[in-house]
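Bug report (template v2)

What were you trying to do?
Predict the complex of my protein with nicotinamide-adenine-dinucleotide.

What happened?
Run completed; filing so the output is reviewed.

Input:
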Amino acid sequence: MKRVLVTGTAGFIGFHLAKLLLTEGFRVHGYDGMTDYYDVTLKQRRHQMLLQTPGFSATEDLLENHDRLVQVADEFQPEIIVHLAAQAGVRYSLEDPRSYINSNVVGTFNVMEVAREHKVEHLLMASTSSVYGANEEMPFTEVEKADTPLTIYAATKKANEAMGHSYAHLWNLPTTMFRFFTVYGSWGRPDLALYKFVDAILDDRPIDIYNHGDMYRDFTYVDDLVRGIRLLIDVPPVRPDSPDDIAEGDSLSPAAPWRVVNIGNGDKVRLMDFIEAIEEAVGKKAIRNYMPMQMGDVPATWANNDLLQELTGYRPQTDFKDGIARFVEWFRDYHGK
Ligand SMILES: NC(=O)c1ccc[n+]([C@@H]2O[C@H](COP(=O)([O-])OP(=O)(O)OC[C@H]3O[C@@H](n4cnc5c(N)ncnc54)[C@H](O)[C@@H]3O)[C@@H](O)[C@H]2O)c1
């Protein structure tokens, strides 16, 4: 089976992806710097679980350490690279923008260099729905312009898309960029709303509800998301002979084996409905603290998933109420609450 280098395996999505790939018999080497953006114990627990699975090995170091990344790739000889490690989080990018430049711009460049050196069959990298920024036309499609990032987080991810395009063009490196939409699920991130809400409700603390609850998100269950990534691994973009060969709705570049693909649930869920589903799953009402809109935030996201379906025959399908129930079950078990 193929050798896949996955960055960010101690992180939420990388952990779930590595688990899925290992189940299918891939050999996976994880690379993660275990940054302290959130509870490092959670990251260690995820890595420990993966390390118990045959076929998994890992290196704990920063992406910025180019020599280490080169050494790891020389030893492991990856055929595929899935680059998920990043300084994530929209709100934190107002507090510490430099960490986004270091991890996401310098770090991603180092990963691309390794992909080029090793002539990997397919480089797949995480971008975000945040690149749609101030766009208002919904659902968001990959072929529409996304030139209005509202935070440094979104700007670094948009930069990654452009950097990826240049390497795909120059070195004929098949590259897929994913735009993920608000991912949630077991082993999830403590900085994200679902985790914070469940924790606060269980402890009888108030929850902060931004824009007075007038928010919408396309919530994507992590198992569905990693299934989408897995299937896209098998669909490396091919440089078209002519722009006329590009199907309508395909974001394939006319100048490179490069495309960008939304992975979202394809539903626009009202934040208040999401909160009610959490209350239902927890069995307790939230104390609501209504707040104004946060700087850099957007009122709504909603993915058009047609391209993912066209390429893989798959669409995410977990209803948010089922996904929330599964998350709450994990949360209570993990925290013993
Ligand atoms: N979770 C979401 O809702 C969401 C939405 C859109 C995009 N994304 C993107 O998906 C990817 C994975 O996100 P996640 O939710 O799993 O986040 P995460 O923070 O749980 O995982 C990221 C991992 O990358 C590692 N990392 C960060 N900076 C690093 C560096 N400089 N060197 C080495 N390792 C480093 C961290 O230690 C962490 O384990 C990220 O690129 C993120 O921007 C996530």
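What did the reviewer find?
DSSP finds ten helices and 13 strands in the chain. The two ends are 41 Å apart (CA to CA).
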